[in-house]
Amino acid sequence: MRRAVSDHRNQVLELVRGAWQRRLAGAGAVQTVSLAGAVQRVLASDIAAPVSLPPFANSQMDGYAVISGATGSAGATGSTVEFDVAPPVPAGRAAGQLPPGCAVPVMTGAMLPAGADAVVPVEQAVPDSFAPFEPGRRVALPANVPAGQFVRAAGSDIEAGALALPAGTVLKAAQLGLLAALGIAEVPVLPRLRVLLLSTGDEVVAPGGTLGPGQIYDANTTLLSAALAEAGCEVVSGRILADAPEPFARALAADLDRFVPDLVLSTGGISKGAFEVVKQALAGDGTVRAAVDFVSVAMQPGGPQGIGSVLGTAFLGFPGNPVSCLVSFEMFLRPVLSTVLAVPAPRTVLNVPLRLPAGGTLDSPAGIHQVRRGWYNGAAVLPMGGPGSHLVHALARSNALIQLPEDLIRREAGQNVEIWLL
Amino acid sequence: MRRAVSDHRNQVLELVRGAWQRRLAGAGAVQTVSLAGAVQRVLASDIAAPVSLPPFANSQMDGYAVISGATGSAGATGSTVEFDVAPPVPAGRAAGQLPPGCAVPVMTGAMLPAGADAVVPVEQAVPDSFAPFEPGRRVALPANVPAGQFVRAAGSDIEAGALALPAGTVLKAAQLGLLAALGIAEVPVLPRLRVLLLSTGDEVVAPGGTLGPGQIYDANTTLLSAALAEAGCEVVSGRILADAPEPFARALAADLDRFVPDLVLSTGGISKGAFEVVKQALAGDGTVRAAVDFVSVAMQPGGPQGIGSVLGTAFLGFPGNPVSCLVSFEMFLRPVLSTVLAVPAPRTVLNVPLRLPAGGTLDSPAGIHQVRRGWYNGAAVLPMGGPGSHLVHALARSNALIQLPEDLIRREAGQNVEIWLL
Fold first, then answer.
1. Which of A43, A400, B72, B373 would staple B398 via disulfide (CB 3.0–4.6 Å)?
2. Which of A223, A348, A350 to mutate to test the interface with B (most CBs of B within 10 A)?
């Protein structure tokens, strides 16, 4: 009995949510990091503003700070009013009291002198540019300036004590900029999910090694390490384990002790063949305390899946082909990470026309959710390679996954398909 | 005379392209990095496949490898043919010659014995499961198996010597997985753009410090460092320089010597006020050999912009407000980095309805490209805060930039606007 893609994703959701809650309940889960180290991290608690923004009333323009009332009363001749020009307020200094009858030159962002409640832009003054301060200078400004004109009131962006950012906020440039503006140099962030990555197979050789007959290079460790890193996880180890149940189980138990991961992710060894190391090692033969279901999901590629726990740690088993691994990651683990951990951002989903040779079709077995790889050129998507799970070069030339759900058995050229942008 | 946004972006494009070409022409521009260190880097040269993928013909199923011709000739009784079961091919070992009259158990991915040209899935065999090898076992397989059935031919994904990935490819999980599958452990990648980041102003204090009267915290270094890092640049230094032309010019010259950046990016000090340190220092007074245009772009916020070179290094000057900095980065620098360096990926652009109180409008001055910040909830975008460039808290609660181009002076609730997803 095959399991639906959505059902399996829900089970992965429960698994990862449980692992994450155990991690958060553990000691030292929340980390305090500098702003520079907090890019793409998730805020662990609400942050209240320690100061108001702006911290003080300041000018929105280069101009003259005045008491608005003074522009509508004594000294008005026609449409302008004359003021003595007081010394300017230097940036970064306290502004004193506005001297009576004076206008004070202020640059954008400078603190308003006490008493001033409006700014007249220098372009509206006569003369319409600043000159070095000297006693006796006068300036003519428009009459009847409204109170508050070109003034940024203290706290008009946020008041001290107000919620600046809620827990769960993903910290990107704007959010980190706000924290810096508030004077906050370090923030509490949620930990990264720790993933122990295991490849299996006597036939796999690490890149850089030499292939013997019948051997292939291990693509999965590299592929999934990169995918997990891009998704904000911490890969605590990625290695190839021997393709026999006993040594596999021993090495896994040792790695669990050493790395204390939140999640174990293995590749390969879970299918229906005669030599399926992960399945054999975790089948509950007493070597390892494990409760893993080996199931068949109605998905192609990536049908065989393992899910459960090993020695109390959450466990996912992906199939051994690199394309199956990537599809399994994108269909099951990545969306769940987005939901549970707030990072990574979900994939962009589009409905776009299918590009095929005239009369061509894209066919998918009934009852199977087929995931094809394709190249989206901004207007339409062209399938790359066939459905085969060994086509890693075709995958590498793709920038999208084409979704052909269970009830969709054929799409023709020009018909719309759902794609997920990689 | 205000400059159009697109004209300024084109000038930034020329500036960054020139800086990048000088960098690439320099010694040691191309770096060789491990696959684990190559995530989101850009391939510096074409990569040819050193081996074929798959390296050898292998089975697509768990089943029996046979000579297809043998299933259509002698030994056929009705719809099936009987074979002796030969010892299985262990994973990672060379498969020998297929013995005459035999079928060889093969697991998915295992090398086909020499002579075999087809695989019969175990489900179609009688018996339909594998048993441990012993001499004398027989298996009945369907007659007339077509040649090539369930065989992945050597080189069917990519042939040795063919182009695996072209120069300029952005290396993500799938591309790195392909390189690993090809046995390649290190790749030549393009360098990161080195950016020297400078904040100016006597009024700015680094986060964590104590504010005096009239002072504010420096948000720009944090905000732009994060934005540049997310965009794949290397920020070689980010510091606050004194707000006087002479010390600013001296410190800048020293930093250029020390860090040898590709691009200098300053914030603040380029407007029309009486104290504009960047403008004064780089106005060609002899202190620093500079050729910088200080221009006014028809954009709000972010109108004042500086562009040119300082001591032969490309220079951009953004205005001093954090919101203006982010908007300047997103409108000018980030799209240019995407074009010239291939990373980051361009922002997703959507046309979505505007969410406003009933009867509300979003107004933009004629002839000015206004960039508002907003929250896109998946269906519509709600403006956050007003147009003011000091509203960094409103920016931090936004996930989109709302574009109101020069000729657009009003949008009403429910009308569509273009947004860029942050």
1. B373
2. A223
Question: pLDDT class for B71, splitting at 50, 70, 90?
Answer: confident
- Amino acid symbol at B316: L
Of A180, A217, A422, the CB nearest to B180: A217
Q: What pLDDT is attached to residue B77? A: 56
Closest-approach residue (CA) in chain B for A210: B183
A71 token code pair: 């522009």
- Give the model's pLDDT for residue A75: 52
The structure tokens 């959450």 sit at: A314
Distance CA B348, CA B403 (A): 13
Residue for token pair 């914030």: B267
Domains of chain A by residue range: 5-29+191-341, 34-50+167-189, 58-152, 349-421
For residue B407, is pLDDT > 80?
yes
CATH tag, A5-29+191-341: 3.40.980.10
- Nearest alpha-carbon partner for B403 in B62, B88, B6, B55: B6
CATH of domain B58-152: 2.170.190.11
Which pairing describes strands B369-376 and B299-300: parallel, antiparallel, or unpaired?
Answer: parallel
Q: Of B81, B52, B65, which is closest to residue B158 (Cα–Cα)? A: B52
The DSSP output letter for A74 is: T
Q: What pLDDT is recorded for position B290? A: 81
Output the pLDDT for position A73. 61
Is the pLDDT confidence value at B285 over 60? no
Is the sign of the CA dihedral B155, B156, B159, B164 positive or negative?
negative
ipTM of the complex: 0.93
pLDDT at B74: 52
- Please state the CATH superfamily assignment of the domain spanning residues B34-52+166-189 in this structure: Molybdopterin biosynthesis moea protein, domain 2 (3.90.105.10)
How far apart are alpha carbons B51 and B55 in whole angstroms? 6
Portion of chain B with pLDDT greater than 70, in percent: 97
Q: Do A392 and B91 touch (CB under 8 A)?
A: no
Contact A390 B39 (CB under 8 A): no
For the record, the structure tokens of B31 come out as: 């770096």
Cβ–Cβ < 8 Å for A420, A401: yes
Of A104, A108, A137, A276, which to mutate for an interface test with B (greatest number of B Cβ within 10 Å)? A108
Return the axis-axis angle of helices A334-341 and A5-25, rounded to nearest 10°. 40
Question: B180-194: per-residue pLDDT in tens?
Answer: 999 999 999 999 999
Residue A419: partners with Cβ closer than 8 Å, 6 or more residues away: A349, A350, A351, A352, A374, A376, A381, A400, A401, A402, A403
CA atoms within 13 A on the CB side of A145: 30
Same CATH fold assignment for domains B5-29+191-341 and B349-421:
no
CA distance A270 to chain B (A): 11
Token couple for B29: 């521009």
pLDDT tens-digit readout, B9-53: 999 999 999 999 999 999 889 999 999 999 999 999 999 999 999
Which token pair is A191? Answer: 């930990």
Q: Taking 70 as the threshold, does the pLDDT of residue A354 lie above it?
A: yes
Q: Check: CATH 2.40.340.10 for B349-421?
A: yes
Whether the predicted pLDDT of A245 surpasses 90? no
C-alpha closest to that of A274 among B62, B137, B139, B85: B62
